[in-house]
């Protein structure tokens, strides 16, 4: 008889199509998944996956197991949501938030909420990945987006703007480049359509890529060290950065507070959403910047 761990292994392999993809979801390494699958197939006397050069493909038996496992997972998640919706105090509340948004102001929000709910075990999941609220990877999500998923329930809690920022030392050192004389170093971000943001290029045609980052926290550190200027959300301006003189503010993606529709009336979730929405709205200037 197959246990749930066996069923989940087959399900995640079928979803990911590779050992490494399933390993990331299961929180183990590639070799562990390979060994678990080999043991399962040996014990059951069946082959659940075909090994391919670029991954794995379910056999007929593997597809059947994955289908049943998915149905069992859906039932378990539905029960989990039902129980969570009934909880009034105590238990666990999981909140996923992009690391950049989890700044000092957000920490103050959490401290206030914790003082009112000392019996609740609060998990803050600082992750840039979009965690799946439908699979209870989190109960509440703060997301920076123009259009979050229609299947979630929640509201926009603040608009945002971005600016072009640098350290004061950088501005003094590159006054001539800021006036158009010589190359102007820029810290680029790989998530932008171009290594140097179009808004920077339009204002400074002499902009030259100094460093390309795939993480805004790393870009922020480099800008603070005077490696280059960059465009970033206004709330990151504090503690040693200044907006480059003569540059405007730009529209940026708003922040949303979201949950699964079945949890919208759960006391813990609804209470947390109300507090967060009020706190973010009250400090809107933190995210919109000053003209």
Concise description?
The protein is of the alpha/beta class and 291 residues long.
Estimate the strand proportion: 15-25%
Using the CA coordinates, give the radius of gyration.
24 Å
Return the structural class: alpha/beta
CATH superfamily of the largest domain: Periplasmic binding protein-like II
The percent range for helix content is: 40-55%
For the termini, the CA-CA separation is: 66 Å
Whole-number tally of structural domains: 3
Overall geometry: globular
Q: Sheet bearing the most strands, described? A: 7 strands, mixed
Corresponding CATH architecture of the largest domain: 3-Layer(aba) Sandwich
Low-pLDDT ranges: none
What is the name of the CATH topology of the largest domain? D-Maltodextrin-Binding Protein, domain 2
Please identify the top-level CATH class of the largest domain.
Alpha Beta
Total beta strands: 11
Query: What's the pLDDT, averaged over the residues?
Result: 87
Order of helices and strands: HHHEEHEHEEEHHEHEHEEEHH
Number of helices: 11
């Amino acid at each position: 008889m197959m246990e749930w761990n066996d069923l989940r292994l087959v399900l995640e392999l079928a979803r990911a199509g590779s050992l490494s993809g399933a390993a990331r979801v299961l929180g183990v390494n590639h070799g562990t998944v390979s060994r678990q699958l080999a043991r399962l197939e040996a014990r059951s006397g069946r082959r659940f996956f075909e090994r391919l050069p670029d991954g794995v493909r379910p056999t007929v038996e593997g597809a059947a197991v994955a289908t049943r496992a998915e149905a069992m997972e859906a039932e378990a998640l539905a029960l989990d949501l039902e129980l969570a919706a009934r909880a009034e105090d105590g238990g666990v509340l999981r909140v996923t938030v992009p690391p950049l948004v989890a700044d000092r102001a957000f920490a103050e929000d959490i401290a206030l909420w914790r003082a009112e709910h000392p019996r609740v075990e609060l998990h803050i999941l600082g992750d840039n990945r979009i965690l799946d609220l439908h699979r209870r990877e989190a109960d509440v999500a703060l997301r920076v987006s123009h259009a979050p998923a229609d299947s979630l329930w929640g509201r926009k809690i603040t608009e945002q703007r971005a600016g072009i920022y640098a350290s004061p030392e950088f501005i003094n050192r590159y006054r001539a480049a800021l006036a158009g004389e010589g190359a102007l170093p820029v810290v680029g971000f790989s998530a932008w359509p171009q290594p140097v943001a179009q808004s920077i290029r339009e204002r400074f045609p002499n902009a030259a890529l100094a460093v390309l980052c795939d993480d805004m926290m790393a870009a922020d550190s480099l800008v603070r060290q005077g490696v280059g200027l960059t465009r970033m959300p206004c709330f990151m301006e504090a503690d040693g950065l200044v907006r480059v003189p003569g540059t405007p503010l730009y529209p940026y993606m708003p922040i949303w507070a979201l949950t699964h529709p079945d949890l919208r009336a759960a006391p813990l979730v609804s209470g947390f959403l109300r507090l967060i929405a009020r706190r973010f709205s009250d400090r809107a200037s933190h995210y919109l910047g000053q003209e």
